[in-house]
């Protein structure tokens, strides 16, 4: 059996995005791992989402969306004592977004903070069967801000590695999550950075933004960043509309990605990029030369760009046919 499945672990949450008129907000389904799981399905790759949602209307909306795209939910958890997190997202005049905090909840924590290792361990045989069919496990670092979810992430990583599943980590640094967590709010910035850097040693593939490279590694060279980590992972550094720098399969380079004057909202662009990259690694095989790497990055870049041409992350993610049509239009 060929390993072609991708398991995405982490937060599914609501992006409450400020309207252009500044007169209110619109709610969109989001959360980086949830975004990646959905984007992969649109790109014809089987995906599994492992996370925890509140037993609320938002949780139901997520389940409806996941089911619509046929994302596997065998390990999804619903919690009665917490709520699905709602993130307030503001935008500047260029469509770039920033997190301004969370909607208050009547519960003491959010559902993504209580992803339970115990509940997953009860399904260990199903989990191991899933690992046998899995090529990549994708996760970020936000769940490290909660001790319960953090323990579960490490449990899943160790299980995946036992089945030779490759680990893809999107650093996805979001300070506001750490500032608002009862566990991590008292932890210094330096301690947070060190905790995350240690976690990154699990990566076979590491994606990060340019500003994250500077903050965590004091470097923007993907090869030198790779050398700082024990697995010597492949490293991909994105920088908005600017070229992507990469160190992949022992090769290093810079790739221009397509741009547009019609950017509406950058929410989820990096997640669509990552899904595009992973889909190419699975469908075309791991790139062995510069041209193959360029093709992977350009495909991923097109996925990211097309997601920016409308509001919300999952709604705007392109289907496989749309990406190829767009790339074809650039050549003709």
Kindly describe this structure:
- Helix 10 packs antiparallel against helix 11.
- A hairpin with a 5-residue loop joins strand 7 and strand 8.
- 39% of the residues lie in helices and 22% in strands.
Strand content: 15-25%
In N-to-C order, the SSE pattern is EEEHEEHEEEHHEHEHHEHHEEEHHH
Classify the secondary structure makeup into a structural class: alpha/beta
Which oligomeric state applies?
A: single chain
- Give start-end ranges of low-pLDDT stretches: none
Q: What would CATH call the architecture?
A: 3-Layer(aba) Sandwich
- Tally of individual domains: 1
| Distance between the ends | 38 Å
For the sheet with most strands, the description reads:
8 strands, mixed
CATH superfamily: Ribokinase
- Measured as a percent range, the helix fraction is 25-40%
Number of helices: 12
| Name of the CATH first level | Alpha Beta
CATH topology: UDP-N-acetylmuramoyl-L-alanine:D-glutamate ligase
Shape label? globular
Mean residue pLDDT: 93
How many beta-strand segments? 14
SSE blueprint and pairings:
Blueprint: E1 5-9, E2 13-18, E3 25-30, H1 32-42, E4 47-50, E5 52-54, H2 57-69, E6 77-79, E7 86-91, E8 97-102, H3 117-121, H4 124-132, E9 134-139, H5 147-162, E10 166-170, H6 175-180, H7 189-199, E11 205-209, H8 210-217, H9 222-227, E12 234-239, E13 242-248, E14 251-255, H10 269-283, H11 290-307, H12 320-331
GO molecular function: 2-dehydro-3-deoxygluconokinase activity; ATP binding; fructokinase activity
Keywords: ATP-binding, Kinase, Nucleotide-binding, Transferase
Family: Belongs to the carbohydrate kinase PfkB family.
